[in-house]
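Hey all, quick one. A colleague (J.T.) asked me to put the flavin-adenine dinucleotide job into the tracker so the inputs and the structure tokens live in one place instead of scattered across chat threads. No bug as far as I know, just bookkeeping. Sequence used:
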Amino acid sequence: PYDVLIVGGGPAGAAAAIYAARKGIRTGVVAERFGGQVLDTMSIENFISVTETEGPKFAAALEQHVKTYDVDIMNLQRAEKLTQKDGVNEIQLASGATLKAKAVILATGARWREINVPGEREYRNHGVAYCPHCDGPLFKGKRVAVIGGGNSGVEAAIDLAGIVSHVTLLEFGAELRADEVLQRKLRSLANVTVITQAQTTEVHGDGTKVNALSYKDLVSGELKNVELEGIFVQIGLVPNTEWLKGSLTLSRHGEIEIDARGQTSLAGVFAAGDVTTVPYKQIVIAVGEGAKASLAAFDYIIRS
Ligand code: FAD
């Protein structure tokens, strides 16, 4: 069996693998797609000490760093079940194989919920964005829309209003769902327009980048157009935990509940990164959390 088996090959999983391997213990990484979400990222400008890089380049660097250590990388493998038998963890793969480990680190990440309208996929990274902390500065002085009036949408609109020229916030329901204090802050901003009962129907562009979106006014039924350069979709981040339901404690948003050391509700099972309840989903945070969970897993192993 492995001493530490990591499920997920994004920034959190890669950091966990390096920290475990450096302890000289038997380490494996199972990943559906080594690199994770950064593979879908254009430019990364907020990983401290790297002024600017591209997602695929960053992912390749992660893999290269892990490969300088004695780590079994099992790429293109999907984990489907986690069980424990006599104090040993078992991870069942879609291929039918079962891997055993003294400690497991879950780092399966998350995915942004999409609005699923024509143009969204086509213009992803060409005007359609999901992370205001990451991509906000790319729209400096431009017009953007935020889709979603929950806490993350309203926070994004407030954040972006300080960078861009104008923000249109579109909410499907009759009212915003964000905390009142955020709504108050939002309403105090001169360059924000809030439109409720608006269903986004299409992202338009000139073939290379976004230039407008259309939405249906759910009161009048009319189709309307907003000219802009950017669209931030903020309708939720979905943790990749469907396969873990019933095996450990998840929050009501489906995130793995962890303590300050990355320990989950199951002994010997740790978790790190976007898949957990840790606030703020960022690469630099996922990397730190992965390192922390790995040190905690090592502590667990030497005590058991
Ligand atoms: P992920 O990166 O999501 O990695 C999860 C890993 O688990 C992947 O290898 C995946 O294949 C694997 N996996 C999932 N389910 C299974 C399974 N059942 N079995 C096996 N493997 C599985 N952050 C920044 O800090 N700066 C940015 O500029 C930035 N830009 C972004 C742009 C975009 C378009 C997106 C989508 C995200 C961006 N982020 C950015 C966020 C950042 O990518 C994430 O916070 C970070 O990747 C989280 O790392 P993670 O390791 O927790 O999860």
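Adding what we noticed when we looked at it: The mean pLDDT is 97. The chain has six helices and 19 strands.
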